[in-house]
Amino acid sequence: MMMDEHTLGQFQSRRRFLQETACGLGSIALWQLMADEAIAKPHFAPRAKNVIFLFMPGAPSQLDLMDPKPAMQKYHGQPVPAHMLDGLDDGLIRGSARIFASPRTFQQYGQSGMAYSDYIPHLGKIADDICLIRSMHTDIANHTPAQLLMNCGLPVFGHPSMGSWVSYGLGSENQNLPGFVVMTSNSGSGIDAGTANWSSGFLPSEHRGVTFRASADPVLHLRSPKGVSAASQRARLDAIGDLNRIHQTKVGDPEIASRIAAYEMAFRMQSAAPELLDFSGETKATREMYGIDNDTTRAFSTNCLLARRMVERGVRFVQLYHSTWDDHSNLNTKLKENCDMTDRGAVALVMDLKQRGLLDETLVVWGGEFGRTPMNEVRRGNTLGKEGRDHHPFAFSMWLAGGGIKPGQIIGGTDELGYHITRDPIHVHDLQATLLHCLGLNHEHLTFRHQGRDFRLTDVSGEVMTKLLA
Amino acid sequence: MNFLRLSLLASITVFAVDVSAGAEPHWAFVPPKRPVPPQVSASAWPRITIDRFVLKRIEDAGEHPSPEADWTALVRRLHLDLTGLSPTLAEIAAFESDYKIDPDAAYTKRVDRLLASPHFGEKWARWWMDLSHYGDSDGYLTDQLRPVAWRWRQWVVEAFNRNLPFDRFTIEQLAGDLLPNATTQQSIATGFLRNTLSNREGGADLEEYRVLQVKDRTGTFGTVWLGLTVACAQCHDHKYDPVSQKEFYELYAFFNNADELNINAPLPDEAVNYAAAKKVYDKERRELLAPVAPCLAKLQDRWEAKLLDTEAHPGRDHLWDRELELIGLVWGGQLGEGQLEGLNIVYKPRSERTFTERDRLQDYFLRSGSRIDEEKFKELKISELVSQLDELKKALPHVTRAPTMVQHHEYRPTHLHIRGNFRQSGAETRPGVLAVLHASKATGTPTRLNLARWVVASDNPMTARVTVNRLWQELFGQGLVTTPDDFGTRSNPPSHPALLDWLATEFVRRDWDMKAMLKLMATSATYRQDSRQQIDDPENVLLARYSRQRLSAELIRDNTLEVSGLLNRTLGGPSVRPPQPESVIKESFEAKWNVSEGADQYRRGLYTFIQRSAPFGQLVTFDFPDNNQACTRRERSNTPLQALTLLNDPVFFSAAQALASRILHEDGQSDHARLGHAFRLCLARAPQPGEVARLAEYLDTQAAILNDDSEAAKAMAGDTPGDCGLAKRAAWVGVASVLLNLDEFITKQ
Question: What pTM does this model have?
Fold first, then answer.
């Protein structure tokens, strides 16, 4: 569905025509019509239908998790070798920073021999199902712009997020749930770029990520007030919708159409969400696998299980945020805390999707906005054991699994300190182009005309990385 | 591999060309010059100077401005913008009759009346609270309560209401304590700086979190007054703007010399009895402690020395490390007292301590200092003395305290933090201002007061621009500069540069009079345009119409309560806790939410208690900002979760029941007359025939659905009175709810 603001206007006038003539059809029929219309077609045969993006704001330390550098031991405590800094002018590099060899131990897993640290003991179980990228790189080393670049394709506010683009490009398969859902969990801190990460930018606001609350009650006020039956609720909604439509013809604000759509979605969620949120049908084994009943893993794992239940029900794009991995100090304890909270759930998710035959059509992505430096950063004095790492945009790791991705392979590599990429660099835009490709979308053609220019997720660059594809 | 290095270098080089080599300096760093208003073709349209700048741009684009909005739209718009509440029926009627006689006079009169309304201060205080990142709790994991944070909010409401000029508004909040003969109110103003988070979690490093607070204050200052992201320069020179790391620590040095301190700030009715009772208390206290005084003083000396020694040598004795942590972090927790208040007294030479400081420290020592000599404490029967002191205290009338800032007792030197690490001290930095901006007139070692005076100096290129842009944004939905937090080199250029400069110079020319600026904006032809979208300009960059804007979270609730007759219009006072779902409450560490009683459940949204770790559910659903940092612009999202709240939240549904009661009570006419009445109550306008017909149809449909189900009808109707039959009464609740859910109701247009 390629549109600009002009054709969107035409689309909306068609909608308006339908709305205005809807009295005879009955509003429900109208909404069915509109729902059908909302399912757009991909550009070519897709490999994946849905995406679950496990986004780790704050930037996890790849060097302590999945890009082991045994050679660091010999440089430990020394300045970064001069040849690596040659010509590099970046605020993050300071002469006083010393190489900090990872205190972690690594073990190899799977046929490709991927090595994972002792902090993520579960990930090895799916080594043959995932594609590990060690050669990601980004443009900027501050959290907010880098998170926006990863999620929205540009390091500034106001642009649609990947989930919004996908929802806009492919529509939703389940008319009773939002097409793009966001869930959050944390180890004490929030997300730097906040809600802008799931903004719909200049796309119609129904494509914005809908945030489910991180609590026992993910969607507040799902139940109609006492005395309001489904028929009463429907009658109330029809009246609200019709009056909103009358007003829209007067003021011509597309935001009203979005409001109407949001109310319809709310109504449908009232019937669909309780079933979605009800885990009583999940087996004990499933709960156990995810760690739903464990205090440490509960928050993130509940979101993972919800994510699986959502894609089962056709939610197009689910994004989980677990913050924050910004370990400038106390890396040893804080990284462990986050790994303990998330490793089990993420792995269970992939295994669960696989055993249900859903992994082929679901693309799972894990990663943060950049990586962390091979050097230490000691913010609480030179106390041993309180070391941390700074932001590192030049090389970091992510992993992908499922829909269209070739599993069991390692892509890219870094130098002996993990400072620079030595082969197969993948820019954030390349990753975005590849994810869209898996969904059957050409990243250069998924555009929206805004203020006289065609915008796309990948700005003006990005190449599909065929090495990643099955 | 150097591919990335090249692209980074390339962007750095491009940047370097932008700002150096004799290129024009960035517009925002050059003081605004008063622009000459441009000539326009449609010379009848502009009402005031603002309009000529706007019209010029519209005409240059080959377009026309929109016609003036209906009077009904105008009156609602004005009320919402200036007081945050929709007009009552009486206010609408009064405006209508004035308007028919003389529209312009009626309009100006209404603007003046609204600017004089006490609710004006409430509306605009919330705007300023976003910038200050106000909260009623500490933040961080333990997120303890700050039960007197509201004193500063109250000051803000009153400051707006008495139209305190923005320069004084600024000076008092940044440095009210340093003004000559500072009043209690001027000290309370410094509560602005107390909206910084406090970490009272065990194990938190005292100095680390003090430094974080100072950094937050420095960064907030930069964002709020300068519109610059100075906080970016705390680890390294700013990547884009001419703010060096050294300059960050020069600004930091001002705030590094400010300490948190809560003071007695009696409310009007508390002041009377307290002074007399305090005299008695002081005397009795002295007498009670006299027998042990010499001994106690020696003990306390030892205790203080031990604390200072522990601070100098951490890790020697974990029990004393804990003692230090307790006095540093836990002092006054849950009471919202300032952090490090106790330790700051310890640092102060005894001869310089005030009477109050001596007593407070002694009080703390008596209750928590026994570790220095348990035996001696027993021997002196300190615990009995404490009980007796507690008894004496009971006779003292309650005095409400207030969070403030005071100057550290001696100059606290600042060193640059290498790479932002406070443990790696660089060169000493003295308090100073940004070189790219105007010079400071201060001599000697400047203080916060000098900083405050500098920031509102008439030759400051930033403050006036940044502030008028935010006032504009609040009325028009979008600033002339759309990056209200950043006027630096990476900001979006102003859509109307000359207008921005005209407004900025006008603001200074009018002695920083905020009400005058709002009046100018609100009386402009630009503001009075219709909001219908007529030309292809979705973002309304041209300002050729008024932009429709969804109301903020607080205003949606306020207006729902207002039109339903539930709103409690009481001004000021402590924060309240309206009912909300249990699951939200459980999200916070505190996990307690003692629901306010009676009419306190229906106060305006700005009085809702802000528990930082689990903000009020309805606020969050409607884009309440992350209040751990300054918010310069609220988002206005549009989600199904908002629909669920307005449809199903018990608070909103009970408002519908109350509104139905009002409709059935106040106007005992035909259904059609009642519908018209309800419409005017909610939207300040008469309905169109099609709208009445649709509502009437719904009324019948809803009544028919409920006819056979009296249980449901009873539940839905609630206490709605009337003699039209149960199902019909319940259906009227439905009608009320429909109106409260309309896009138009939650929108300013």
Answer: 0.84
